[in-house]
Design a protein that fits this description.
The complex is a heterodimer of chains A (332) and B (467). Chain A is mostly helical. Chain A has 14 helices and two strands, in the order αααααααααααααββα. Chain B is globular, with a radius of gyration of 24 Å. Chain B has a two-stranded antiparallel ribbon with strand order 1-2. A two-stranded antiparallel ribbon of chain B has the order 3-6. In chain B, strands 4-5 form a two-stranded antiparallel sheet. In chain B, helix 1 packs antiparallel against helix 2, helix 1 (3-42) crosses helix 6 and helix 8 packs antiparallel against helix 11 (367-395). The chains are: A mainly alpha (332), B mainly alpha (467). Bound molecules: CIS-heme D hydroxychlorin gamma-spirolactone and protoporphyrin IX containing FE (HEM) (2 copies).
Chain lengths: 332, 467
């Protein structure tokens, strides 16, 4: 049961990264791709109707973590207090910048909101990576299950590297989204960038192998213990190859899907490396919060496993419906 | 109480109060927008009751729905971005509480995300941006879905709060509690009245905002058709919800407090001494030093009557509880409760007068009452916030009533020292002041531009050829 909830949690987080990835990345690439007022307006209206739905998956992820592993929720959130507060402020600024942009039709106002949007999105992409980096690396959990990481320890070298990787990956995600959704020179530019970002991702991913091994042997030795987990990075490699082929053939829809798959494989690899911990302690066991010692009581999980899949099926229905309705129109 | 706990409390109180100002309006407007859209889409000349509408009337409803959707969108955006911090703050600031109660309230919070936020946010995009891209039917359905989503999210969050006020359906040790009965959690007797009372408060705000906008345009002499529709819908809505707010939902909420949180009840009513045939205090200042109510005007024996329907029943006073069980601020509970009830009564009175004039067809010409309607809506916000302050401060010294004290609920000082808490509290203050200014600015612009004429679709009579 605990493993099942670990998988569900990982799945929700993956959905979040894949979906919000393309609008976070769109922010990070905003000034690079959008030349001039008109193009920026188009990027903004491509993500305007969907960013909120995408971000809601983060809220759901938080709720599921709270539900299934309350000790990990309490420990991680209080320990990373300062970092999380900054995440919150960035999320606030970014959300309002998108929503308020089209309220006033004036170039000066657009410059202001676009600046906030771009900076906050880029920083958020990095910060998401930093969070993942800290989980992989482990945090100094004490005997009572709590810890404290001051701001500049959250931003340690390994986490920052993962942060940069995340920025790159999410940029690639949004470039391949805009490659589908944007027409004209904007679309051309997005496609060109999407093509370039693929090899960049491969190189960056390869570079990260060594530091990851350095902070957490288990990430690599885990493949020896459970050989089948090799499937995950292998799937990632296949997804990237598919993406390259699809891009070369000009099948941008397929390339976008392949990129989503690649992100999923990357996160799954990380999750498999962390499992069965949910928040590893830097000192190792017995301080780590594992799926067993952090889990909610059995009855809570039993009840939730009944309603949660129902909710997910419903959500899949309305997201499919909403995105189809919104994306039925031709690229603009 | 240690200073770091105080900082956590202040930050939570500030951020949740600020957040709540926006859902009040989205939940209230959501109801009325769904109504306007339904009339516009389903109304026909041959239908009955509220749906008996000509195409011209349906056009008015459609235009009004589109106008309110603009205000809804801006409000919703602020509601979302200020809501996300709250979801995090349970973990960041109240880690011990989350650890203790996560087995129960993790359910309601995850339910809220899964069933309501996803519904709401998926359809909001369709509703706000899709007006020209989707069919009239999809547009109507998305308005209804957004309304349902927001009222469901209200349900789950109030269920969370109701459990904290009156824990049920749990089992556990002293270290943590977990869920025993999901059904009991969802049918918490406290929730049964708190939910309708709270949603009624939001609907009342929606109604008064509608009426205020209409009254404003009528007094200015602009957008006549739109203004009359808003005033009519708003005033009738205000009457319905103002009455429901007092009876039965307010009355029953009071009964719950009387039975389950007697010390809170004594603070709300300013009863220091346990007494038979307690008076209902209209005016009076509680003095916790002398344990007296001063400068009192009261209706003799009425409090006993209201709580138990007997003039001679006993009401327990604060003297029957040790001070360690008193709410942390008795005067705050007492005055906020008085403000809620006082405003509730006045607002109900105004709604009655306005409805009477509407019925006699005099309302649109009565400038005095239009003025009153125009300036009444802020007071519904005050009543809502005052109600929450009564409930939350009245629950003290407990976070989870009878189970976990607030002083033991915060994140450990080593994780979140007071200094960092003050820093982030100031950060929220600054950011939220900026947001409030922007919000008002954008709303004023929308109001200045006014509604646009949008035809309702589909037309009930096919347009004649050649027209
Ligand atoms: C426009 C808003 C509004 C109005 C006019 C009223 N209320 Fe209210 N009241 C609320 C908005 C509200 C609220 C904000 O919705 C509260 C706070 C907690 C909750 O669930 O509802 C609440 C809570 C609340 C409680 C519970 C307090 C606690 O839990 O400690 C009681 C006993 C009442 N109300 C009673 C009344 C009565 C007798 C009213 C008669 C006029 C009244 N309310 C008008
Ligand atoms: C329904 C969802 C809500 C939940 C789950 C909730 C939960 C909490 C929690 C955990 C605290 C901190 C612990 C404490 O001080 O007792 C708190 C305090 C507080 N909340 Fe709420 N709250 C909710 C809604 C609201 C709303 C809507 C308001 C105001 C409009 C509000 C006003 C306050 C205030 C003023 C305090 C501080 C009380 C004090 O410390 O004396 N709450 N609430
Ligand atoms: C501690 C208490 C609260 C928490 C943790 C909380 C959490 C949240 C979160 C995370 C969101 C954003 C959802 C999204 O991304 O779409 C949100 C929005 C919302 N919240 Fe709250 N909230 C609290 C109090 C309340 C209360 C008391 C109500 C009403 C009864 C309420 C009603 C809503 C509604 C209707 C929305 C949708 C956005 C909007 O309408 O503005 N919330 N809340």
């Amino acid at each position: 049961m605990h493993t099942l909830w670990f998988l569900l949690l990982a799945a929700v987080i993956t959905v979040y990264v894949v979906l919000d990835g393309f609008d976070l990345g769109a922010g990070a690439l905003f000034f690079l791709l959008g030349r001039g007022e008109e193009e920026r307006g188009r990027i903004s209206s491509a993500i305007g109707p969907v960013w909120d739905g995408n971000e809601t998956w983060l809220v759901v992820g938080g709720g599921v973590l709270f539900l299934s592993f309350p000790r990990a929720y309490a420990g991680a959130f209080s320990g990373l207090y300062f970092g999380l507060m900054i995440v919150l402020w960035l999320l606030i600024g970014r959300g309002l910048a998108i929503e308020f942009r089209h309220q006033i039709d004036h170039p000066l106002w657009h410059q202001a909101t676009d600046f906030v949007f771009a900076v906050a999105s880029a920083l958020l992409a990095i910060v998401l990576g930093v969070a993942l980096g800290n989980v992989v690396r482990g945090v100094p959990i004490g005997a009572n299950g709590y810890f404290h990481l001051p701001l500049f320890s959250i931003l340690n070298w390994y986490a920052l590297l993962v942060g940069l990787l995340a920025l790159l990956v999410l940029s690639a995600q949004s470039a391949s989204f805009l490659a589908v959704r944007a027409a004209g020179t904007l679309g051309e530019r997005a496609r060109k960038l999407a093509r370039r970002l693929v090899p960049a991702q491969i190189i960056a991913g390869a570079i990260m192998v060594w530091p990851t091994y350095a902070v957490r042997h288990h990430m690599l030795t885990g493949f020896g213990d459970h050989p089948w987990t090799i499937i995950l990075p292998a799937a990632g490699a296949i997804a990237i190859l598919t993406e390259i082929v699809a891009q070369a053939r000009g099948r941008w829809g397929r390339a976008f899907v392949a990129n989503c798959a690649a992100i999923t494989a990357l996160l799954a690899t990380a999750a498999a490396g962390v499992y069965p911990d949910i928040l590893p302690a830097r000192q190792g066991h017995p301080f780590s919060l594992t799926i067993d010692n952090a889990a909610a009581a059995a009855h809570s999980l039993d009840v939730a496993i009944v309603w949660f899949p129902i909710g997910m099926v419903l959500a899949a229905c309305y997201f499919t419906y909403a995105y189809r309705t919104l994306f039925r129109s031709p690229p603009a | 109480m240690s200073s770091y706990v105080l900082v956590d409390r202040l930050q939570f109180a500030f951020t949740v109060t600020f957040h709540y100002m926006f859902p009040i309006l989205t939940m209230g407007l959501g109801l009325f927008i769904a109504y306007l859209k339904t009339v516009s889409y389903v109304g026909r000349p041959h239908r009955r009751w509220l749906l008996r509408k000509t195409d011209e009337e349906r056009d008015a409803h459609e235009s009004a729905a589109r106008f309110w959707a603009k205000i809804f969108a801006v409000t919703f955006a602020v509601g979302v971005v200020t809501g996300i911090p709250l979801e995090f703050e349970f973990g960041t600031n109240w880690a011990a509480f989350s650890n203790y109660a996560g087995g129960v309230i993790g359910q309601t919070l995850a339910l809220e995300g899964t069933f309501s936020f996803l519904l709401e946010s998926a359809f909001l995009g369709v509703f706000i941006y899709g007006a020209s891209r989707v069919s009239p039917r999809s547009h109507w359905l998305s308005a209804v879905a957004v309304f349902i989503g927001s009222w469901l999210s209200g349900f789950f969050i109030v269920a969370t709060d109701a459990w904290m006020q009156h824990p049920v359906g749990y089992a556990g040790t002293g270290k943590s509690v977990h869920l025993k009965s999901f059904w009991a959690l969802m049918t918490n007797p406290w929730l049964i009245w708190q939910y309708p009372h709270n949603m009624g408060g939001a609907a009342l705000t929606g109604a008064f905002v509608l009426a205020a906008m209409g009254a404003f345009y009528l007094l200015l002499g602009r957008h006549e058709r739109f203004a009359r529709l808003c005033v009519t819908v708003g005033v009738v809505g205000a009457l319905i919800f103002a009455v429901l707010q007092i009876f039965p939902t307010g009355d029953q909420s009071g009964e719950n407090v009387y039975h389950d949180q007697p010390a809170t009840f004594a603070s709300m009513e300013g009863v220091f001494q346990t007494q038979r045939g307690a008076p209902l205090v209209i005016i009076g200042n509680p003095n916790t030093q002398t344990r007296q109510l001063e400068s009192v005007i009261a209706l003799p024996k009425f409090l006993s009557f209201l709580t138990s329907h007997h003039f001679t029943s006993v009401v327990r006073g604060l003297d029957s509880f040790p001070t360690s069980l008193w709410p942390s601020s008795v005067p705050l509970v007492y005055y906020s409760y008085r403000i809620m009830v006082g405003l509730g009564t006045l607002l109900a009175l105004l709604a009655v007068i306005a409805t009477y004039l509407l019925w006699r067809r005099k309302l649109f010409r009565s400038r005095t009452v239009l003025w009153a309607l125009m300036i009444a809506f802020p007071f519904t916000y005050i009543a809502n916030i005052a109600g929450w302050v009564t409930a939350e401060v009245g629950r003290q010294p407990w976070v989870v009533y009878g189970l976990l004290r607030t002083s033991a609920a915060a994140s450990p000082a080593q994780s979140v020292p007071a200094g960092i808490g003050i820093f982030t509290l100031l950060g929220f203050l600054g950011l939220y002041i900026l947001i409030a200014i922007l919000y008002v600015l954008l709303i004023v612009r929308i109001v200045a531009r006014g509604p646009e004429d949008v035809p309702a679709r589909p037309r009930s009579v096919p347009a004649a050829v050649g027209v």
